[in-house]
Amino acid sequence: MNDVVAFQDFSDELCKDGSCHVTGDLIAFADFTRRVLRTLYESLFASLVLVALVIAFLTGWRRRALFIPLIASSFWGPAIIMIAIAVFDIQVNMVTVVVISMLVGLTGDNAILFLLSSRRDDLTDGIERRGQGSIQCNLLMALSCLILLLSYFQPPRTLGVLLAAGLIAALFGDVWILKGLLAKRENR
After folding, report:
1. What is the SS3 assignment for the chain?
2. Which of 44, 33, 168, 185 is nearest to 123 (CA)?
3. Coil, strand or helix: which one is 152?
4. pLDDT in tens, 113-147
5. What is d(CA 59, CA 52) in angstroms, rounded to the nearest whole number?
6. What is the pLDDT of residue 151?
């Protein structure tokens, strides 16, 4: 796909006046992929900002010290998967876009659940009350994603592994990193 994009950029450079252009299925697919990726990054940023705003609203002024631990733990899962995609040079395509979109969609869910279920402004209470259910739900979702490993085609297998890894990373951030950040804050 990179060769097609490079060829298209080269042809656009040759035909700056718009007198010619390349066409075909591969060119159309390359254009589509570029637009999807640009939309992904724009929506990723917008989604993370919206999650941060919701958490800021729910923590309010009284519990504002909880904002940073909640944001850090919530953004952990998507950040780890984005870093893994870059480090392992996993091709960004429609499958990886689906993975990132799903993980960003789940960002902040547990933080909001813990905030709303906490009593007496004690977030640790909310984690204790709803953490077990959150762990069970995430593990079941991660295991369910592994059914895609049985696919004949490689993209669904990649999707299954990335989704399962992302859900486990998000769970780790949502529960244990959050607990660690709260304990560190209380020790100060």
Report:
1. CHHHHHHHHHHHHHCCCCCCCCCCHHHHHHHHHHHHHHHHHHHHHHHHHHHHHHHHHHHCCCCHHHHHHHHHHHHHHHHHHHHHHHHCCCCCCHHHHHHHHHHHHHCCHHHHHHHHHCECCEHHHHHHHHHHHHHHHHHHHHHHHHHHHHCCCHHHHHHHHHHHHHHHHHHHHHHHHHHHHHHHHHHC
2. 185
3. coil
4. 999 888 776 888 899 999 999 999 999 999 999 99
5. 10
6. 93
